[in-house]
Amino acid sequence: xxxxxxxxxxxxxxxxxxxxxxxxxxxxxxxxxxxxxxxxxxxxxxxxxxxxxxxxxxxxxxxxxxxxxxxxxxxxxxxxxxxxxxxxxxxxxxxxxxxxxxxxxxxxxxxxxxxxxxxxxxxxxxxxxxxxxxxxxxxxxxxxxxxxxxxxxxxxxxxxxxxxxxxxxxxxxxxxxxxxxxxxxxxxxxxxxxxxxxxxxxxx
Length: 204
Fold this sequence. Notes:
By secondary structure, this protein is mostly helical. The chain has 2 domains: 1-119, RNA polymerase sigma factor, region 2, helix turn helix motif (Rna Polymerase Sigma Factor, Chain: A, Orthogonal Bundle), CATH 1.10.1740.10; 124-204, Orthogonal Bundle (Arc Repressor Mutant, subunit A). It has helices at residues 9-22, 26-48, 51-67, 78-97, 126-143, 148-159, 164-171, 175-202. The longest helix has 28 residues, at 175-202. The relative contact order is 0.08.
């Protein structure tokens, strides 16, 4: 199987471990789990806010990944594939718990970066859908207060759900610049939201 030539050294190492794991090498399984278990657990903990649930979800994530290892294709890094499984696993858990809203910094994407949780509207009842829509409108109003370059990045990443690579291509920017500016944009957005909350509290 041909590996993506753009892979980093870590991604290539992961690919080699995956190939060994497919052959039944137990140490390769252990190495993959050791490498990512803390990151997966941290992501799950942020999403479900419960240590026991996060630990269960972490174990489930690796179980699902290892059971479906033959389906992994090296078009993307193993870490990307693994975090996508973890994210979907947590979202399924959250839906079952009927948790319908979380803050903008309550989720991590498949590359380990903060990303808002998006729960499809067809999982919500009419009242919840109305609340979710109102929250999205309020969030867009707050985003509009950001400097234009940060506003554009937030809209592309979180509302249009483009990947970092797609944003870099669309804006003709280096990938590293996109990631760095998105980090700054999230920080600015968080500050604006915090000021907004304080303002609302002072009105009462």
